[in-house]
Amino acid sequence: MNNLVEFFKKAFHIIVLAVLLILSIVMLGKSLAFNDYRLSRAVQSIVGPIQKSGMGMVHRFRLGPENESLVKQNIELMREQDNMFMVKDDTLLTVMSETDSLHRTSVRLYDYTYAHVIFKTVDKAFNYMIVDKGLKDGIQRDMAVLSPEGVAGVVTDVSSNFATVRPILHPESRISALVTPANQNGTVIWEGSDPDVAYLEAIPQHSEINIGDSVFTNGFSNIFPKGLFIGTVKEVQVGNNASFLTIKVKLATKYTDVYTVYLVENLFKPEIDSLKANFKDE
C-alpha cells in the first residue's frame, strides 16, 4: 500500500499533465465540431496531395501511359456523340437565303474532361469521392461525373486542386431517369444498403417494366446529358403506394473499381440557371 502511495506521489505531476492533455483534446474536438465544413476542407488540402502522390503510383501501375492515352481517345469519341449537341434550325433570316440546304446547325451543349479518384467510400451511409482536379483545371460544382461503365455522381464541392463527388451511393442523390423500352420517366435514388443497387421511383403501376430493361438519364436536368447509362432493372414489385412500382436497379458503375472518371460540363448551365431562378414555387 505504501509503495502505491509513493508511486502516486512521484507520478502526480505526470498524471495531472496526462489528464489535462486528454481534457484539452476532448474540448478541442467539440469546438471543431462547429467548424466541420472548414475542417473537412483543411483535411482535404492536407491529405489530398498525399493521397494524390500515393494514387499516382497506383495509376502508373494500373493505367500506364497507354491507358492514359486511351482515356483521352475515349473523351474525343464522347465529345462527338449526338447527345453532346443541340441541333437548331436556322433563323428565318437564314432560311430566306438562296441556299436550298436544310439549314440545321449543331451547337455544342456539353464538354468532357477526366480525373483520377484519390479517395472514395462505398460502405458508409453517406459516401463520397475526391478527384485530383479542381478549380485550376476548370472543374465546377454540379458537373456530371461518369465512370467508364455509366453514371457515377455529381461534383458538390471544389477547391483549387481537388473536387468532391457525391456518388449515387448517397441518400441525397437524385437522378432524373428514363426506363426503356417503356419510355417512363422516374428518379433514381439510393436507400443506403447495397452499393450495387439503387431504386427507380415514380414509375406508374400500369407501366410494362421488365427485368433487364435499361435505365438512362432523361436529360431533364441541366447536369446530365440525355442517354447516359445508369443501370438495368433487377426487380419489379408493386410498392406500398399502389399507384407506383418499386423497381430495383443494378447500377452500371462498380464503385469499388472506379479509378478514372469523366466529368461533363453543361456549357449553357449558367444561362439555364438564370431562367430557372425566375420560376415561382407553387
Task: Sum this structure up briefly.
The protein is an alpha+beta fold. It has helices at residues 2-32, 36-62, 64-79, 92-95, 269-276, and strands spanning 85-89, 104-108, 110-120, 129-131, 144-146, 151-158, 163-167, 175-180, 184-189, 197-201, 214-217, 229-238, 245-251, 260-266.
Major beta sheet, strand line-up: 3-4-7-6-5-14
* CATH class identity of the largest domain: Mainly Beta
Structural class by secondary-structure content: alpha+beta
| Main pleated sheet | 6 strands, antiparallel, barrel
Overall pLDDT, averaged? 82
Q: Could you tell me the strand content as a percent range?
A: 25-35%
In CATH, the topology of the largest domain is named Thrombin, subunit H
- Tell me roughly what share of residues is in helical segments: 25-40%
Number of helices: 5
Number of domains: 2
What sort of overall outline do the alpha carbons produce when their principal axes are compared? globular
Spans of at least 5 consecutive residues with low confidence: 32-40, 93-100
* First-last Cα distance: 78 Å
